[in-house]
Write a structure and sequence with these properties.
Blueprint lengths: L4 E3 L11 E5 L2 E6 L4 E2 L1 E7 L6 E7 L15 E10 L2 E11 L6 E9 L10 E2 L8 E5 L2 E10 L5 E9 L6 E4 L6 E8 L2 E8 L7 E7 L7 E2 L6 E2 L9 E10 L5 E8 L12 E10 L2 E3 L8 E3 L24 E3 L8 E4 L2 E5 L11 E6 L4 E9 L7 E10 L2 E8 L2 E8 L2 E6 L13 E9 L2 E8 L2 H4 L4 E12 L5 H4 L1 E3 L2 E4 L6 E8 L6 E10 L1
Antiparallel strand pairs: 1-24, 2-3, 3-5, 4-25, 5-6, 7-8, 8-9, 9-10, 11-12, 12-13, 13-14, 15-16, 16-17, 17-18, 17-19, 20-21, 21-22, 22-23, 25-28, 26-27, 27-40, 28-39, 29-34, 29-40, 30-31, 30-39, 31-32, 32-33, 34-35, 35-36, 37-38
């Protein structure tokens, strides 16, 4: 070891369900993106310590259609592998998960390079989600959990199916919400890694092995490979959904999801990606202590790391930004070094064509700031800055025809606070307002600056002033977004909080807002 340390989470904020892959000297991490474009966010590293975002793979509707998907629907648990000179990406698109059903379709695309070009999607057979591929001797097999929608059923185990034809086999019955399968082979054993316990505080990783790919599989007698369920004092909770990778020199690591809860147990930052070192003991891959560590020894021998500095100029839609339910395209979004121009879209509750450009909240203390140029023409047109979780849970400071309005949606119940009168039009691009949203632990604050006394009252001027009350950040958490009715899931909370810019044009009359001098800070 050279003393370098991996510090977790390696991908902070919304980066769940990691799939890790090494090709030569390069490591790639793919994570779930749910209702956000581009689908399947990928990061690259040479040393497992430093990671740079490459952006999303599924950039357009040819590869991914998210129109109308529910909150925390869309892309679930991608799997990235490399075989026969091609990158293989398997991903599921969840169209509905409520009231006892799971309407998901699994797809496969391939590319000669991680940058593409990616092939047209091929629909895969399968009876559930969390699909992955295993390659051996020129053949490929598809693994996935099986979902049984009959009342009182649900999770039904892990299925294995040859991609070149043949019947599926149930190689592992359901044990405890068994999902997220990955298959490996070492020293004549097949190792089946699964996630169990659900994606919350009981989450964990279990490893089983067999001499035959079809099983039967026996569990590691030492118990779960990784879990936080027995120790609420650990900094990383919800540890689970893992994927193994071997370094060029033979060291092993597991990428897994984890969360850093606030006091009280809410996870505003969502589910993040962490790495743990794996050692082989008595023929089993194990994490020291079976619990996630914040600091982990880095590989002892690595290739030279590339320049991982994000050189994107402020205002350019770089790889850390996402758009909601529709891809970034010139018909509604223009990104240039000077800033963003966003054409208005649906209401905050619309599931087809909202106009929201946002990025994940990556630290408990952070802020997003910009200068907005916008003048609403009527009551149907609004624009501003938001702290956002999903269509039912958000805070939004917007310039409207009635002036500045601060709105909170808490599980769909709206509370509006009018903060000032209407602003007059100022030039071709409209009124200029500086806006800022700030996360400070469990609190969200909004700030603004404008020289118009009607808009900001006694606080008008060029200096940012705090507008409205302190707001509850914990309604923008995975736990708060989870909703159940009569024991059935109504909504999941899988994504973590975002900050971003939002524009509405409810009558489709062509309004747009311009955002400049964009700055995100932690």
């Amino acid at each position: 070891m050279d003393g370098r340390v991996i510090r977790n989470p390696v991908l902070p904020g919304f980066h769940p369900d990691p799939s890790i892959l090494r090709v030569g000297e390069d490591y790639y991490l793919a994570t779930s993106t749910f209702e956000w474009y581009p689908g399947v966010r990928v990061h690259h590293s040479r040393d497992l310590v430093h990671w740079r975002p490459l952006g999303g793979v599924l950039t357009d509707r040819r590869l991914l259609d998210l129109v109308g998907v529910p909150d925390s629907g869309g892309v679930w648990a991608p799997d990235l592998t490399y075989h026969d000179g091609l990158f293989h990406l398997v991903y599921g698109v969840m169209d509905n998960y409520a009231f006892g059903f799971k309407d998901i379709t699994n797809f496969l695309i391939t590319a000669p390079s991680i940058e593409g070009p990616w092939s047209d999607p091929v629909r895969l057979p399968g009876r559930g989600f969390d699909a992955s591929l295993y390659h051996e001797d020129g053949r490929s097999w598809l693994l996935s959990m099986v979902f049984d929608s009959r009342p009182g059923r649900g999770f039904a185990g892990i299925e294995l199916r040859p991609l070149d034809g043949g019947e599926p086999e149930l190689i592992l019955p359901n044990r405890d919400v068994t999902e997220g399968p990955h298959l490996y082979k070492a020293d004549g054993w097949y190792y089946l890694m699964v996630a169990e316990g659900g994606t919350g505080y009981r989450h964990g990783i279990t490893v089983l092995r067999s001499r035959s790919m079809s099983g039967p599989y026996e569990e590691d007698p030492a118990g779960p490979m990784l879990t936080s369920r027995h120790d609420p004092g650990l900094a990383l909770q919800k540890a689970g959904h893992g994927c193994l990778v071997r370094t060029r020199t033979g060291e092993w690591y597991v990428a897994h999801l984890a969360a850093r809860p606030y006091p009280g147990g809410t996870c505003v930052l969502g589910r993040e990606t962490a790495l743990q070192r794996v050692t082989w003991v008595d023929g089993w891959p194990r994490v020291p202590g079976g619990v996630p560590a914040v600091e982990v020894p880095a590989p002892g021998s690595v290739a030279d790391s590339p320049d991982l500095t994000d050189a994107q100029p402020l205002g350019v839609l770089g790889p850390e930004w996402s758009t909601l339910r529709r891809p970034a395209s010139p018909d509604w979004l223009t990104a240039a070094p000077g800033g963003l121009t966003i054409q208005g879209g649906q209401s905050p509750y619309g599931l087809r064509s909202p106009s929201l450009v946002a990025r994940p909240v990556t630290a408990s203390t952070c802020s997003l700031e910009a200068v907005m140029r916008f003048t609403p023409g009527n009551v149907h047109q609004t624009a501003g800055i938001t702290a956002y979780y999903n269509s039912r849970n958000w805070h939004y400071l917007a310039l409207t025809s009635d002036g500045l309005v601060l709105t909170t949606s808490d599980r769909g119940t709206r509370t509006e606070r009018r903060l000032g009168g209407p602003a007059g039009a100022e030039g071709a691009e409209g009124a200029e307002v500086r806006l800022r949203v700030e996360f400070d632990g469990p609190v969200v604050r909004f700030f603004g600056a404008h020289h118009d006394p009607e808009l900001f009252g006694a606080h008008h001027g060029r200096e940012l002033v705090h507008l409205g009350p302190e707001l509850d950040a914990t309604i923008l958490s995975d736990e708060h977004a989870d909703e159940h009715i009569d024991g059935h899931v109504r909504a999941f909370g899988f994504t973590g909080a975002f900050v971003g810019f939002w524009v509405q044009d409810l009558a489709g009359e062509g309004c747009a807002a311009r955002f400049e001098q964009i700055s995100y800070r932690t």
